[in-house]
């Protein structure tokens, strides 16, 4: 049992906050639990982002939430008074689409993706010209029929061009979609997940997350998906490639030790900052078996405003 | 690495089959994968059951499928030409209802069960006078609304009398049900499962099973359910209590090593018989890390007819 070095607490310490900000050129920011909870933006966050930008910092929003596309996020940010551009946003749906189109390289006759997830995934797949079925298609949002049981079992209702199953957070998950995905995986389709967060923080509470929605498939097939969200380094590599960032001068800000903070540490970033407005608490990194220990922490993101 | 004793193969060996039948008074039979696959009864099974009964054997159907009640099973057996009585059937829905009413003993103000599952569970809970919500109630078979998100998160839409979440195979699983169950579990409700089979064999193929349908809750809460189906010995104890069986003179017949055969071995029954018409194959018990090794096996249940 080695005592892990504990993080530096910045809240209320003006000099420490200024030194922290000066250390970095780029801040990668998680959204749910850092910027907002659901549709409620945390107080002072708008001003904090303005402060960082006014000091010449690049702010990139890195989110595991795949239900929205990058352009959906631009709208959400705008509604909250935060100006942003599609290029400021890096979501797990986008990360997955890039991985499928540029790295996975499915054979032409098996290049379709069966999607469990919401519209955000579909938009990003379209932007990368990846063909897909499932997703928000109403014909998959219904009960099983006797014809489904027979046709899914014997394969006659399956699309032979599906070579990949991509699972994300799906608020319309049902047995029909799970049965299709299960059969595609049994027949050799690649298994990807936008992210494997166990819970989804919103409305000041938690709901089942993308990782939990995909678990029926993990359990029934015995296969684990390749995750394209935090803390997967596939996502970090894609971010680095896109933003040409100097990892030493980059800091990851997030609320979850097992996704955000681990993402920054495994990515060998110069810093990680935990905020206490989301999933993880101080006790979590003080625990002997902590998933990850951040380098810095604040009670809330807007505590950085003290630097002004 | 100890070589495990391998099972005796009975198919085609008349003397061995007769000796096998003579060894036992009671046969506990799994249904899916042994008697039938979906709505298709395997050839010769009706005659095999007649043979066993004609030799004075008691046949008890022990199934993890919780979608049907015992009386539903009587109808299904009748439609397949197999006479049976409610008392011949022991399902995981019934096992769960008995466990909740007689062993769990929830406090009066928290005695409601939130059900994820089909009508079979509801019938058996009713037969034991256990109050429940969820299940097949149409008001839980729909998409999430903004009011659901808010009311589930703050608890105003939760029933304060729910003290237990019971999960089974649910062909109408959705995010609304999972979100309710997740919040009840977070608030301290007991977590039970009718069974934890990873897959559901039907139509000569497989679909996601009850254990897989419950996995989003396991993953999001970090809790594991108490299972009331095979191989849980809670079910064996209940069967013994009901049928007053002599375990040494009882044989479990099934197609799954990790449920049926393990159930019989852990229950210290006199024998276990594997059939190859369902999930497990010969290679599964020949593997070094076999989940369980049966004492006997046949290609199919009707191979026992050779004894006639």
UniProtKB/TrEMBL annotation, chains A, B:
<dbReference type="GO" id="GO:0046872">
    <property type="term" value="F:metal ion binding"/>
</dbReference>
<feature type="binding site">
    <location>
        <position position="230"/>
    </location>
    <ligand>
        <name>substrate</name>
    </ligand>
</feature>
<feature type="binding site">
    <location>
        <position position="30"/>
    </location>
    <ligand>
        <name>Mg(2+)</name>
    </ligand>
</feature>
<keyword id="KW-0479">Metal-binding</keyword>
<protein>
    <recommendedName>
        <fullName>4-nitrophenylphosphatase</fullName>
        <ecNumber>3.1.3.41</ecNumber>
    </recommendedName>
</protein>
<keyword id="KW-0378">Hydrolase</keyword>
<dbReference type="GO" id="GO:0005737">
    <property type="term" value="C:cytoplasm"/>
</dbReference>
<dbReference type="InterPro" id="IPR006357">
    <property type="entry name" value="HAD-SF_hydro_IIA"/>
</dbReference>
<feature type="binding site">
    <location>
        <position position="32"/>
    </location>
    <ligand>
        <name>Mg(2+)</name>
    </ligand>
</feature>
<feature type="active site" description="Nucleophile">
    <location>
        <position position="30"/>
    </location>
</feature>
<feature type="binding site">
    <location>
        <position position="255"/>
    </location>
    <ligand>
        <name>Mg(2+)</name>
    </ligand>
</feature>
<dbReference type="InterPro" id="IPR036412">
    <property type="entry name" value="HAD-like_sf"/>
</dbReference>
<keyword id="KW-0460">Magnesium</keyword>
<dbReference type="InterPro" id="IPR023214">
    <property type="entry name" value="HAD_sf"/>
</dbReference>
<dbReference type="InterPro" id="IPR006349">
    <property type="entry name" value="PGP_euk"/>
</dbReference>
<dbReference type="GO" id="GO:0008967">
    <property type="term" value="F:phosphoglycolate phosphatase activity"/>
</dbReference>
<dbReference type="GO" id="GO:0004035">
    <property type="term" value="F:alkaline phosphatase activity"/>
</dbReference>
<dbReference type="Pfam" id="PF13344">
    <property type="entry name" value="Hydrolase_6"/>
</dbReference>
<feature type="active site" description="Proton donor">
    <location>
        <position position="32"/>
    </location>
</feature>
<dbReference type="Pfam" id="PF13242">
    <property type="entry name" value="Hydrolase_like"/>
</dbReference>
